[in-house]
Amino acid sequence: MKADGGGRRGAPPRSKFFSVKCTADVQYTINPPSQETSQLSHLPLNKNSVLLISMSRASQYENDNKLSVQYYDENQDVLGKAILHLTAVEITLDVDADRDGVVEKNNPNKGSWKWGPNGHGAIILVNCDAEWYFKRPDSEQDYISRVSDLKDMSLMVLRTKGPAVLPKGHKLRMHISQGDARSIRVFKSASTEVGNNFLSKLFSKFVKDYPLVLSSESVSQEVPYLGGEAETNFYVEGLRFPDKDFDGLITINLSLVEPISPALPETPIFTDKVVFRVAPWIMTPNTLKPVEVFVCSTHDNFAFLKGMKNLVASSGYKLKICHQYMHRGDRWMQDELEFGYIDAPHHQFPVVLDSPRDGDLKTFPYEELLGPDFGHVTRASDDVNSLDSFGNLEVSPPVTVNGKNYPLGRIIIGMAFATATEGRNMTQVVQDFLWAQKVQEPIVLFSDWLYVGHVDEFMTFVPAPDRKGFRLLLASPDAAFKLFRGLQNDGHGQTKLFEGLENEDPITVDKILSDRGFQAENIYVQGCIDWNRDVLKRELGLDEEDIIDLPILFKVVVIRGMYKAVAYYPDMVNMIVLGKNLGIPKPFGPKVNGRCALETEMCSLMEGLGLTCTFIDDFASYHKRHGDVHCGSNVRREPFDFKWWNLEM
Fold it and tell me: Which one of the listed residues 528, 596, 603, 631 is annotated catalytic?
């Protein structure tokens, strides 16, 4: 109740005083506060008087409480009386705002979102897996076909307490903005049970009792008020990942509305809201434990496949072989896809990011990987080049840089040099996607100096027992020339590279060291790698002791008038990392005492870290096609233990 100076709003004319009476469950306060404390005291009425009314419990039936206000003139004679018949309804829209996997009641922080271990705010997953093997992501269908799909969604509970029915004309209405409607759908359960009881049902059952409530076609919907003390489950489904035009935050509102007249819109008298953040897509670095290794079987990669089978079997992991009918001659498993995952307090599953390169392997991620609890996401573009293949997409292990923690590591991509006018770059839609995930802030390297143009041609990470828990490995022509000069000085200048290889002319160490043009090419390559070295040291907080240089030489070729570099012999940095076992391209270097000097050096560098080197022959089947072991394989890994929502942002 509020009265203005002339007494024209709510109070009779000439009103100067008022008194208040109410039933036991009603509380009220008066602003500004009065010195009088008795219900029957006559209180001065002025233009700023405000009566705030609340109730201590929900009503059992309509109008079961009341409050009366009596008005008096200046002589304190009664002028009139107003009676309010009150119905109290308790309404809360609840989510897992404290991120413990349980929907708590009326968390005060449910309407906002905050990062960090002391943060708050609910989380939803993009429902990008497929409960059926019909190869259609669940997010592309506006219905729930199996109860198992519910675990990919976030539970939201409407809790109400009050009379059997709402006062006449009053309704509960759930609503979202038109912008948010592109990003979520909300389904309602016919059941009033709370929690994970649906897990006990048969997941193969068809579901017809989860009607769609909110979507892009319906941004506002009346929801039932059940009466008494009741709970209704809703399931919130994420439809798209954070991106350039979407920050990942979603707001869902629940309003109690009342009618004014048939000709006017309903008026909200109470609104509760909850905020969700869509879980980001997260990459996994080489330091995480492998789960499954993927390679292709081709007509000419028998030696490679044999080496990979032995390596994976001895390491104790699964091997998935993609056969001809699926890859159609496209052997570049790393380039087609990148494995990652999405995570929420209630559920987690792997998600493959499908490259826009769309070679002959293009159907593999969708046809072979998409399924129950295995999601798929892609970003398509008509303007693609070699840098859009995912050998050009890596992620570092966790690092701390100038006091800032990156517990999920940092994404690494390769681009043209900043001043280049005709260089190749990763397509913008993929860049936008990667930056929008926020939790693995990307680093941009210079990779366009390479013919293929991928960062995995000159760098990788391996686990280490000390320092930061890993080492950065970099290709190094300087290290290679130093090794070869040492061989020459020790009298091994006539030993040959490429001995025993078909269709390859062996070349002596002496001849390599005497080729001035070849040395100039590698000086150029070393300069490109050194520029990236400085960027990686700065952006990952590395010292020189965190970096190991691998003896690898390159040669420069002219492609459409452009000078680009390729590995001269199999590129040992282009390896597969399986725990403490490394699958390394067999370099076919000069032999000393019957053993390849490049392999010996590589083993010496890695064994100090407790790592075992296995050399795999990929010369004819991959290296001659400008790729090596890493390019021809892929690894799905376990997710981080660290929860992304605990990041300090």
Answer: 631
